[in-house]
Amino acid sequence: MTQEVGVAARTVPIDFVRSAVATAQRQGVDIVQLLDSVGVAPELLAQDRARVTVDQMAATVRELWRISDDELFGLGPAPVPRGSIRLVGFGLVACPDLGAAIRRFGEYQRLLPGLPPTAVTSTGGRTRATLDTSVFMEGEELLTVFLLAAMHRIMSWGIGRRVALHQVEFPYQRPRNIDDYDLVFAAPLVFGAATAAITFDTDLLAAPLTRTEDDLIEWTRNAPVDVLSRRDYGTSLAEQVRKILARGLGGDRGAAGTGERWPTADEVAKRLAMSPQTVRRKLGEEGTSITQIREDILRDAAVASLVRGDETVEALSARLGFSEPSAFRRAFRRWTGSPPGSYRRVASDS
Q1: Dihedral angle at the C-alpha atoms of 241, 15, 133, 236, nearest 10 degrees?
Q2: What is the pTM of this model?
Q3: In terms of C-beta density within 10 A (0-12 exposed, 13-18 middle, 19 or more buried), how is residue 211 classed?
């Protein structure tokens, strides 16, 4: 498995790593050793704007699995031994359709008391799957996001196409890094809900399962990368704009993305069949702008490169279109709260 690179590179906020570290601390784990094993500098935990790559977050989750020998990292009402979900998966892939797989999973839950209770109800052409997170320790937002995303990804993977979500509900207040949730769910989000839930079209319950046991083995081998990030799920206008703007960055080893190479606001609007004013207004409603999205693309590409450690800061700053390395260093500190060395040093030493 390799971290997605170039224009496709995405990162996740340090908040998720903080949650993982808090979980590990409760189990008496050496946090410095844990962070070193996944290539994250301890000082980044103190920076609210810090980011990590999807690979680093996935490695952190795998470490928690190894340390706890529990699919839920020791946070559930009872242990869920590693490999349990995969074994359940073997029973589900034999089902004829998604609805049958969901019903069978409900039967399997009795064998795995460590899993949070789930319920699936259908009404008015929509189906709502809920997850009772009250059995978790208070404040385990990472586990809630992880399980909701896993539920969604497994259903989509099983039928071989994306399950479009009408709504995702979270039983906690709106987080600081709300933009990152679109990468994971690409759906309207409700915070402060009574329970965690996802809602989708009931028609999808009749969709046939298309996967084999070999497919399942391969999918679980790559876990949890697909749960943490999807490249093609974003449906918000911000994600559409990001895809258009990302072309201005060029290939992963391509020439620098200078200002002239980035699509202009008018060009972006034309490709979206909207007026520039409409694009600005709709992006504003989503809490972002073309300028901010362009900055996010540059930030994620920079973090991915520094973690890989295969470019000098000078080469990276030139590739990203900065006039000089000092300008890149200033921008990077503005994006993440830390100098590039905080990311590159760990990548070089790990």
Answers
A1: 0
A2: 0.74
A3: middle
